[in-house]
Amino acid sequence: MPGARLESVVAFAARGVVGVLAVVYALLKLLPVRPKVVLMSRLYGRTSQDFERVRDEIRRQDPSLRVVVLNHRNTNPLGVPVQMLQEMYHLATSRACITDSYMAALSVLRHRESLVVVQMWHALGAIKRFGLAALDTDEGRSRELATAMRMHQGYDWVIAGGRRMVTPFAEAFGVPPARVLPIGTPRVDILHDPEATKAKRRRIHEAHPQLGAKPLVLYAPTFRKGIPVRVDDILDALGPDDFDVVVTLHPLDRRDYSGRPGVVQDRAFSTLDWLAVADHVVTDYSAIVFDAAVVGLPLYFYAYDLEEYRGRRGLFLDYEGDMPGPVAATAKDVAAAIHDHEGSVASVARFRDEFVAPADGGCTRRIVALALGAAPGDLG
Fold first, then answer.
1. H or E element: which one contains 244?
2. Buried b vs exposed e over 96-127: b needs ≥16 C-beta within 10 Å?
3. For the whole prediction, is pTM greater than 0.90?
4. For the packed helices 2-28 and 80-93, what is the interaxial angle rounded to 10 degrees?
5. How far is CA 257 from the centre of its chain?
6. Where does the pLDDT of residue 8 fall: very low under 50, low under 70, confident under 90, or very high at 90 and above?
């Protein structure tokens, strides 16, 4: 069991590191709290569209507050200590923190009682199990290491995309369901903003003027740990004659398909950007299903490894029953379903009503009000 022994060694070392961090953090908490809110992410190297909305809304609700955005995507391990010190300083001296990811500094440290911590996860919902709900699975963390790192502790509130995600998010983040608020995230506001959508369409068509002559299929698959996604199969099945295909892969998957006829792969645009111009969306277990449902796009599910994935990672939902579109095991069946227009907009609308908060333009406002001290019952 060499893997298990390694995890035990890492967990032991982690406990030692946590002890050192606790001492440093105790000293930092002697500093005064400033009129400041810190936004923390380890997913991006630049500020996300969600955080841009939150930052602007904080300034609107309270112009006296300083907003600090920490985009700490750990691509260089040598930079981690500096990033951690920055995070600790701002957590010790801020009024509130909003995060969209797992941040060790949030979980392992004991914060001031006055600090409000909001976990605004980077996805509206989840099909696959993650966080504490995926411990000891093939793609999850070990329970021993998660315990040593106090994984996903320290949140006052967790934001979910909609009511059906309350129980899964409570399990994934280890909080009571009452602390999971299904009020939607800024991306609901973004996806329903006509001016933002128009601007994205303009930028995309300026960069790729060849798009628009044929229906556009967005292929956004889930990352498999150590197993390449079958991108070629779906591209072969759709072909360059009938469709243009946009491929968006996980940042860790560096394969490039942009040289194929009829294929666009441009990391300058996010998956959210591509939803502004897509006609169809093909995915598998990705949370893009929730975003596409907000927009109302037909969905198709290329689940060639469903049983294997369900056993390796685990799923929160009844996949065959809950997914709002055809579920196919072969790329040819996916292509046939798109040709035959089997993706039902009505099914997508029902899924949206069940899984995503109403798009009233107030998701960002409610999250910021919560971070600034409002009670859940007063969010409106």
1. strand 244-247
2. bbbbbbbbbbbbbbebeeebbbbbbbbbbbbb
3. yes
4. 40
5. 24
6. low
Residue 379: exposure state from Cβ atoms within 10 A (0-12, 13-18, ≥19): middle
Nearest alpha carbon to residue 304 among 217, 184, 203, 224: 224
Domain 193-355 sits in CATH 3.40.50.12580: yes
Q: Are 104 and 149 in contact (CB under 8 A)?
A: yes
In the chain the first and final C-alpha atoms are separated, in Å, by: 53
pLDDT band at 42 (very low <50, low <70, confident <90, very high): very high
Residue 171 carries which side chain, given as an amino acid letter? E
DSSP state of 18: H
Look up tokens 């059906």; give the residue.
164
CATH for 2-187+360-378 is 3.40.50.11820
The segment with the largest mean pLDDT, out of 248-262, 273-287, 331-345, is: 273-287
Strand partners, 218: 246, 281
- Per-residue pLDDT tens digits for 278-287: 999 999 999 9
For residue range 14-41, list pLDDT tens digits in order.
Answer: 677 888 899 999 999 999 999 999 999 9
Q: How far apart are CA 207 and CA 80, in angstroms?
A: 35
Nearest to 293 by CA among 358, 214, 223, 362: 358
Contact 86, 25 (CB under 8 A): no
Q: Where in the chain is CATH 3.40.50.11820?
A: 2-187+360-378
Return the sign of the alpha-carbon dihedral for residues 272, 274, 280, 285.
Answer: negative
Specify whether the CB–CB gap between 156 and 179 falls below 8 A: yes
